[in-house]
Structure formats: structure tokens, C-alpha cells
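Data deposition worksheet. Section B asks for the primary sequence of the deposited chain exactly as it was used as input, without tags or linkers unless they were present during the calculation. Section C holds the resulting structure in C-alpha cell form. Section D is free text for depositor observations; keep each observation to a single sentence. Incomplete worksheets are returned to the depositor.
Section A, Depositor: J.P.
Section B:
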Amino acid sequence: MITVLRWNIKGTQCNEGLLKSKKTIQIADSTGNPFNISYTYYMHALVRQQRDEPEAALEWSEKALTISEDYNLPHNRAWSKILKGWATGVLGARKGMNEIIGLGIKLIKDGIKEENRIGSIISRQIHFALIADVYIRSENIQKAKMLIKEGLLLISKRGEAWGKEELLSLSKKIRTKSSV
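Section C:
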């Protein structure tokens, strides 16, 4: 199942990636295993985030979060909370609603705190990219720059590449906004 999910993330911009992600949901649902189901829902929310579909990302991250809370799945709960925060923050930024943006940022930070409590830092840099994206969309460029810098530093310290592309893309978005 993990192989299918990885392919889905790489193929997020094409419809085939989305279709494979939906097929993966059917497979996970058929197992009846709460971990598989919540993780697959989280990954589908991530596919939707990568496609910049915050409404769908919100729907699937909420489903993943509900299962993760019901079955006490701390990693999935933290990751789902972070994606729910991204979707909430982006939707708030689109509507110019600072209270909703703040709620989204709080959810992301709460998810990161939860990761810290359980000792999970594997996807920290991608989570920095998610919160930086919300800050950019809500015109809080300084905070976004700080998180991008912190995420890139983390990547260089660990020698990991996951999240680097997203962080560099956000950095470019800031430069483009600044030059306009």
C-alpha cells in the first residue's frame, strides 16, 4: 500500500494520481484496519493539498483525524491535524478571515507539538512548508521566510530531500511577490 501512496504523491498533478489515490482508499477501507484507513485518508488529503484543493484536503484530513482520535493513533492524528490546519488556514486566507487563518495556524502548531511529544520529526520540514504556505497566502511574509529558512536548515542537517522542493518553491513565490 505504501508504494501506491508514494506514487500518488508523485503523480498528484495528473488525474491518474488522483484516481490511484481513490483506489487506495477503497483498498484500505476493505481491510477494516483503522491505522491503514486513517493513514490512507491522510495521504489522500496530502494528494489534495499538493493539488491545491483545500476543501478536499480539509474533508479527508478531518476523516483521518476522526479515526486517529477514535483509535488513539498519535502519528496519524498529528499529521492529520497539520493538514487540517493547512486547509483551514488557506480557506481563511482566500476569504480574508484572520480568525480562520489563526485557527489553521494553531492546528498546524498543535500537530507539530503532538509530533514532538511522540518523538516524530520525520516530516517536520514538509510541515514547515505547509505553515509557511498559509503565512504567505495571508501576507505574513516574515514568518513564512523564517519557517522556510528553518526547514531548509533542517534538511541540510539531516541530509533529507523530502520537503526541499516545496520550501524552495515557496521561497521563489515570496521573491516573485516582492518583485511585483
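Section D:
The radius of gyration is 16 Å.
The mean pLDDT is 89.
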